[in-house]
Amino acid sequence: MGIRIVVDSTSDLTDEIIEKYNIKMVPLTVNFENESFLDKVELSTKEFFEKLEVAEKLPTTTLVSPGAFVEVFSEILMEGDQVLGLFIASELSGTYDSARMAKNMIGSDDIHIIDTRSVCLGSFALILEAIKLVEQNKPIEEIVDELERLKEKVVVAAALDTLKYLEKGGRLTKGQAVLGTLLNIKPIIGVKDGKITVIDKIRGKNKAIKWFDEWIEKNNYDLSDKTVLLFHGRAYEQLKLLRDAIEKKYRIKNIIEQEIGAVIGTHAGPGVLGIGFLDK
User: What's residue 205's pLDDT?
Assistant: First the structure.
């Protein structure tokens, strides 16, 4: 009996990793005014940002239904494998609860569900660890225990280029967003215990690279034995500058680059630059 990893589309795993480790990705839905698309299945990141730029109203996202999970889990069980599901923080989406409902509907002890208490890079970092543990042929109960312990070690920070999308989505008042734009303020956000918080503010886009460098140094993060995730939203030139600034300086073992998908892009908007890893 093997172990099959199931994730949702907000982890923004690369296609290469999904294919290499036979991971099942279940998409959330992205809703523009009159159209709905399955994230990453019917709408690519490029198409999403093109639509976002001209959209009058901010798109919304819909969680994965319990029925969709029942279908996916049942298929894996029929193939004789166990399910290891890692999903977006329950504080940020009902997707994890849908997965739990599906598990209860099926009533199988071979389905194990984990709330990553994170999103995007944070979930991705935990999923990488899950892959490693599965590859080591550890029993699923041991893997779940280890992942539950490692959740606390996830580190995520992201610099937003604009406050416009947070304001459009009701996360900021129009006054706050306009003031931020006038002062050229760029918020740095973190994700911890399922909550997104502003951890710092910088003035001007070009200071983001320096901020990340100083943040790594100030926190004494040892990246020499780690896989570091660098994410962007239509900001690959910035990502390259960040990589150049930190890769050799901190002797980073491995870097994975990825562009954010539609769900994260809905609230972060284009220009976002982020870093994530497990600090274990």
Answer: 76
Q: Is the pLDDT of residue 180 over 70?
A: no
Tokens 């900001």 identify what position? 235
Residue ranges of the alpha helices (H) in 169-257? 174-182, 208-218, 236-246
Amino acid at 169: G
Give the residue-averaged pLDDT of 238-259: 97
Q: Where are the domains of the chain?
A: 3-149, 154-278
Strand 154-159 and strand 111-115: the pairing is unpaired
Architecture of domain 154-278: 2-Layer Sandwich (3.30)
Residues 219 and 149: their CA atoms lie apart, in Å, by 21
136-165: average pLDDT? 93
Q: For the residues 234-244, what does the mean pLDDT come to? A: 96
Selection from 17, 12, 4 nearest residue 118 by Cα: 12
- pTM more than 0.70: yes
DSSP lists the bridge partners of residue 4 as 83
Collect all residues with Cβ–Cβ distance below 8 Å to 100 and sequence separation of at least 6: 113
Question: Residue for token digits 């991971």?
Answer: 23
Total residues found in the chain within this entry: 280
CATH class of 3-149: alpha beta
